C-alpha cells in the first residue's frame, strides 16, 4: 500500500549554470510542490499506512524550513555567499 501527501512552499534561488542570462543573474522565486510517498506492507494499529497528523508534525517542519527561503547553490562564489549573510545595521 502506498499513500501520498503533497506539500507546497515558496522559495527563491539563482541558477548560475542556466543557459539564460535572466536565470544566471536574477534572484527569482518559484512555487515548489513536493509529493511524498509512504509505503507499507501492513497497516498500523489504527489501520493506516501512516497517520497524516504525524506527517504534518514531522515532514511539514522540514518543508517549512524551505518556505520563503533562499536556496544557496553549492557552487556559489564566496563573495556572493558573504553578501547574503551580511547584517544590516
Ligand atoms: Zn528558478
From TrEMBL:
GO terms for molecular function: 6-carboxytetrahydropterin synthase activity; metal ion binding. Its cofactor is Zn(2+). It is an enzyme of class 4 (lyase). Its EC number is 4.1.2.50. It catalyses: 7,8-dihydroneopterin 3'-triphosphate + H2O = 6-carboxy-5,6,7,8-tetrahydropterin + triphosphate + acetaldehyde + 2 H(+). Gene3D superfamilies: 6-pyruvoyl tetrahydropterin synthase/QueD. Keywords: Lyase, Metal-binding, Zinc. Pfam families: PTPS. Pathway: Purine metabolism; 7-cyano-7-deazaguanine biosynthesis. Belongs to the PTPS family. QueD subfamily. This is 6-carboxy-5,6,7,8-tetrahydropterin synthase. It comes from Poseidonibacter ostreae. The lineage of its organism: Bacteria, Pseudomonadati, Campylobacterota, Epsilonproteobacteria, Campylobacterales.
Amino acid at each position: 500500500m502506498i499513500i501520498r501527501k503533497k506539500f507546497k512552499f515558496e522559495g527563491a534561488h539563482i541558477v548560475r549554470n542556466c543557459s539564460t542570462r535572466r536565470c544566471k543573474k536574477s534572484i527569482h522565486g518559484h512555487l515548489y510542490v513536493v509529493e511524498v510517498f509512504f509505503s507499507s506492507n501492513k497497516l498500523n494499529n489504527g489501520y493506516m499506512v501512516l497517520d497524516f497528523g504525524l506527517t504534518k508534525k514531522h515532514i511539514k517542519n522540514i518543508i517549512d524550513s524551505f518556505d520563503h527561503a533562499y536556496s544557496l547553490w553549492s557552487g556559489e562564489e564566496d563573495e556572493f555567499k558573504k553578501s547574503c549573510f551580511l547584517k544590516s545595521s
